Write the structure tokens for this entry.
Amino acid sequence: MKTLVVLVAQVLPLAVPAVAALVWLTMPRATKVTLAVQGAIALVVVLALIQVAAGLHSDPRPFAVDPALRPYFAHPADNGFPSDHTALAATVAFLVMRYRTRLGAVLLTASIIGGAARVIAHVHHTQDIAAGVLLAALAVAAATVAWRWVGPRLPGNMLHEGDRGRRA
């Protein structure tokens, strides 16, 4: 059981962007550009939000608080708030959700399951995972607003009807 938890905790946060990259390859060119720009904006925003949140709130990792707990895999005893892995995976999932709703929901679920596995593995608290998902949602919302403001002003108006993407 421990091996499965470790596998889920370490692989799912990496699998989400890998699946998203495959989805991106199947999109029309204009949609690829839109998603790439929104992705870049969202990742910068979520990384900034992670730094701000970590500076505002400290949440020592469960194994640092309770020495009787042993993490399932090696991890530094630093601030666990918010979960970087969950925030980044959920950001990618929310971005995909804008273009492929069902697949994005599956990826978001995978992000949350990966976060839950990190809680079970004693390297995060539940609030760390919840904060990661919330920061991801805020970052993607900010990227969406930024794109709606900047996209139509780009040379050649790269915002085409095809940029709305297919909803699955």
Residues 38 and 151 are 10 Å apart (CA to CA).
